[in-house]
Amino acid sequence: MRTCCKNREIISxxxxxxxxxxxxxxxxxxxxxxxxxxxxxxxGIRKTNFRIELLRLFLQKGHGLSHKDIKEEIQCMPDKVTIxxxxxxxxxxxxxxxxxxxxxxxxxxLTNTTSTQSQHNHAHFICKECKKTFCMSExxxxxxxxxxxxxxxxxxxxxxxxxxxxxxx
Length: 169
Hints:
Elements: H1 2-42, H2 49-61, E1 65-66, H3 67-73, H4 80-93, E2 96-99, E3 107-110, E4 122-127, E5 133-140, E6 158-161, H5 164-168
Parallel strand pairs: 4-6
Antiparallel strand pairs: 1-3, 2-3, 4-5
């Protein structure tokens, strides 16, 4: 009889822990959802279902996304114009930035929200295996001053190789 009581206590404890886990997961999801709302509000952008889902997608993926990637991943099935308008709005406000692609396809990635668009000056890494583009925020591009009459408007540093995920396979 004693073992039965212990098993019930273990089951009860496990059930409590499971409930706590799901509650914490729910709180994290709600916090992320609130962060998306706060981000859109802070830039004065209307909170449509598509824009919320698009930001959520950028947060989940963590690498550059093309128009095609977005169309394949997004649930609410927007038309081409809606996707481009949202991307243009996010670009204009500095929420996302263009990233290089191995095939010269336009890709976009989240901008570090603690920096301004003028400070967006970091390297990008393109994986030769999976073709994904990653922001390398920890690698800053040094400021280059114009010389001999050249007016430098931007600098880019693109690194190519194999990403950790493909390297481990």
